[in-house]
Specification:
β1, α1 and β2 form a beta-alpha-beta unit. It contains five helices and four strands. Strands 1-2-4-3 form a four-stranded mixed beta sheet. α1 packs across α4, α3 crosses α4 and α4 packs across α5. It has one domain: Collagenase (Catalytic Domain).
Length: about 160
């Protein structure tokens, strides 16, 4: 049993094997984190222009970024949690800029797949509640990311 991962490649730039590897990586990370099988997540690959729009609209930052996550499990004001409903866990959405992944892979001198994998795992951990708002949380999150990527075989 694995996660239900929906992929959307708005750039039409990714090869099927790249998407398959990211799906395998996300399932690997989910197993490491004890996420229930059949949980749902979507990953959308976009252009820098599109992620800039999303960043501006939702985060008031008018610039492209590499990855944005929208966790579905964070309760907003006035939202009611469904208890006892036998439904799959919906983790949320991860948006990744392919252009930023290419740029950062060159900058950090590692493969495009390592960078794409890093961004996918980073976004996924955010959906699970990890954050990097302070030094302690950042150390915990980045250490977890590195462990998952290294164990999966996407080393720097």
């Amino acid at each position: 049993m694995s996660l239900n991962v929906d992929f959307f490649d708005e750039t039409n730039e990714l090869k099927e094997n790249a998407i398959a590897q990211i799906e395998e990586l996300i399932n690997f990370a989910a197993a490491k984190e004890g996420v229930e099988p059949e949980s749902e997540v979507s990953i959308t690959f976009v252009t820098n222009d599109r992620i800039r729009e999303i960043n501006r609209e939702y985060r008031d930052k008018d610039q492209p970024t590499d990855v944005i996550s929208f966790a579905m499990e964070e309760m907003g004001e006035g939202e009611v949690e469904l208890v006892g409903a036998d439904m799959p866990r919906v983790l949320g959405d991860i948006i990744i800029s392919v252009a930023k992944a290419v740029e950062q892979a060159e900058e950090y001198r590692h493969s495009f797949m390592r960078e794409l994998g890093f961004l996918a795992v980073h976004g996924f951990l955010h959906l699970l509640g990890y954050d990097h708002e302070n030094a302690e949380d950042e150390k915990k999150m980045f250490s977890r990311q590195k462990d998952i990527l290294d164990e999966f075989g996407l080393k720097r």
